[in-house]
């Protein structure tokens, strides 16, 4: 298709805002493009939009919760489209099948997968748009597209003197055929990928411009709080709201599935009314356990059930029979809360036979199921507006707070903002599971001949499938929701993906040991659990890398050299291990009163080695320095990689030093940061991050900083005190 310059000027002079070019991401439905003459829009399913006034919009299918998707994924588009990342305006995706995470078949952000799953598709989308714009300009100039080039949002004529902005070309570009297999820019031509360019949302966040869930304000909005049973499994028996209804601003008090809701014209008025409710709970089916009882049940389960084999190599039984000695250890890790900076909240508005929800959710399609479940609506009647998230760490993959807000709004018929207090957020979390690990190694001479790892604890899918299964089949009637969940569990590993949450990081054991026996004994004490930053890698990392240190000590070997001798067949593991050791000056004596510990772990495809330098001062553990070497494949934004690894280190150290949710008679004892503390700024160590320059496909960075730092600290304390700690959190004196 060609168009002479005079006709082109006539067309573009008469156009106004609203013309767009959109491209479906490969793998999405609706790959065909179409141009609407009436609206001027081109509307397939997943879009990159360019308008006649030179604006570029990118629909971000992954949420932004501090991990950098807003910047990183936009950079991929910018690189291939030949525009500056700051010239692109990201916006959060609506719920649609086209935006599902291909690894999970759900529209969710988690598992450090955003960059890995977007690396090719988004670059292809940007490159396709660039090629179509170049072809459009070439048709105007009547030249070969191969002689034109794109630069800074314009297509440049072969003579180098003329150019046309993308905005003037969108209508003609919309008529071009979408390239089937566009050639992507070679690495040596990249302008934005691999460079430090700050975060696109930094200025806005510094000025308070972005809207988080808790910031949502709507005309006529009211506020709700919910009193939930203090023990999981309890049910409401009765309540007296007479005193609450007398207080100013109180609009209604009523029962919902998860407790008693109070609605008022102001948030603090709702809280005041909540304080004077009299509630009687039916505890006949409620939890009544303590942490000691949890671990007693784990040990009993481990004794009675060797567990399902998850990885077996060689013959571990023969290795035990022929071993000169066996080394045994057991490790226990407690329940952990997510403690996101922004507590759980959602705003919902039921009107016009539908409900709109504004929420900081990691899984908006599951949010639709959550809202539909507690109303008379179908998922198609629910609209989810995803906001910025004040931390996720896996907690916001479960949409119980959307259920509550929707149930209240469905009854009230007004826009309702529901907010959890910090105490509610702590006591009604879905926790990182408590886990038990039984380890054994067979040793002959100075060689480890066998490795046995029995993991004891629950699977997270058991708790998550309730809304996840219906989200995969949103057309299903609601009476089938629970059935779909049960079928999903029964078909796990067959028709549905296997749940690796308990075993990940253990089954990928990388060291060269000839006989392996790795098992999972599935037992669940009934405490609600969910994904927590780095999931199974977090507890398996502690068990594996602490036991590796114990074996080095048993054999009288240096912990670094011991690992190195067993990992020399894994070049990427070896690279980060050697880098961390060099940076930490491992072979030099630590400063007086300090010691160093080391750990090496691969999670979410990313290789991380860490060396921790620590001491015990005035009866408290003090972490002075953490050196991290990281291989996460091709880096898109080095600053964000450093930010995420540093954040993971602080998150992991918090868990190692303070993380401990305890139960007494089925109730959580912790309530706020005074008894569930986070690492404070004055406790923060120096963190050094060394990033491997790699051309491999990018992998995740939001979580891999967590798993190695916990055992590395424990190993440092052993080097310092000579006492081995096998139970978290770590103590200054054991």
Automatic annotation (TrEMBL):
One of its GO terms (molecular function) is oxidoreductase activity. Residues 300-314 have a biased composition (Basic and acidic residues). This is Xanthine dehydrogenase family protein molybdopterin-binding subunit. SMART domains: Ald_Xan_dh_C (SM01008). It holds the Pfam family MoCoBD_1. InterPro entries: Ald_Oxase/Xan_DH_a/b (IPR000674), AldOxase/xan_DH_MoCoBD1 (IPR008274), AldOxase/xan_DH_MoCoBD2 (IPR046867), AldOxase/xan_DH_Mopterin-bd_sf (IPR037165), N-heterocyclic_Hydroxylase (IPR052516), OxRdtase_Mopterin-bd_su_IorB (IPR012368), TAT_signal (IPR006311). Residues 207-285 form the Aldehyde oxidase/xanthine dehydrogenase a/b hammerhead domain. SUPFAM superfamilies: Molybdenum cofactor-binding domain. Residues 299-319 are annotated as: Disordered. It comes from Marinobacter panjinensis. The lineage of its organism: Bacteria, Pseudomonadati, Pseudomonadota, Gammaproteobacteria, Pseudomonadales. Gene3D superfamilies: Aldehyde oxidase/xanthine dehydrogenase, a/b hammerhead (3.90.1170.50), Aldehyde oxidase/xanthine dehydrogenase, molybdopterin binding domain (3.30.365.10).
